Amino acid sequence: MKKRPAVDLQVTIGSRVFVKYLGRDAIRARIRELGRDISVDYRDKYPVFIVILNGAFMFAADLVRATSLECELQFVKLASYEDIHSTGKVKKIIGLPVPLTDRHVIVVEDIVDTGRTMLTMIEDLKQMKPASLSIATLLLKPDCLQVPIDSSYVGFEIPDAFVIGYGLDLDGKARNLPDIYQLKSDHS
Ligand code: 5GP
């Protein structure tokens, strides 16, 4: 096997050091499985994927290509984070597309942390009377959930540590990294 340079295993942004946590091969393999599951569950249902920008752009691009479905894609933009701490405020920046009445909707998110962003999204979408509503999230931090969120398609359950890469940012940086990195604690 080809040796990767050591620099690949660690990324520094400002004073913060991140260590590689999920490699691109593992991510690709898991998304292939999710794509297969969604293809079976939504056969002949012509679903609409609602992609939450910015973080989910890379996951969504890979996920929809891993399905073998006729489908539509719509994009919304929400934000609840500044730096590495949640502001606790969830803002909707770009409005929801219409109409979703009687459509099968799959919300695509990069990560569910407290669940507040997703709850806002789900509540808004329910108003539009879709035929069904499900969640596909690449990452889920089960220990951080503060509201009940039922994600049908979860890539990876991860511990409570800040992650970057594969669409996930730190103040706008690191979204383009093909792997996912975890903030190194003082003890690791
Ligand atoms: P929640 O509302 O579930 O607390 O947070 C959801 C949003 O917070 C995600 O869409 C993401 O933008 C951001 N977020 C939560 N945890 C992380 C993390 O570990 N890394 C990054 N980069 N963003 C996160």
In a few lines, what is going on in this structure?
Helices cover 20% and strands 36% of the residues. By secondary structure, it is an alpha/beta fold.
Q: Could you characterize what this model shows?
A:
This protein has 188 residues and is an alpha/beta fold. It has one domain: 3-Layer(aba) Sandwich (Rossmann fold). It is 20% helix and 36% strand. It has three helices and ten strands; from the N terminus they run ββαβαβββαββββ. The strands form two sheets. A six-stranded mixed beta sheet has the order 5-4-3-6-7-8, with helices on both faces. It has a four-stranded antiparallel beta sheet with strand order 1-2-10-9. α2 links the parallel β3 and β4. α1 crosses α2. It is globular and about 50 Å long. The chain starts with 9 loop residues before the first strand and ends in a 5-residue tail after the last strand. The structure holds guanosine-5'-monophosphate. Guanosine-5'-monophosphate (5GP) binds next to β4, β6, α3 and β9.
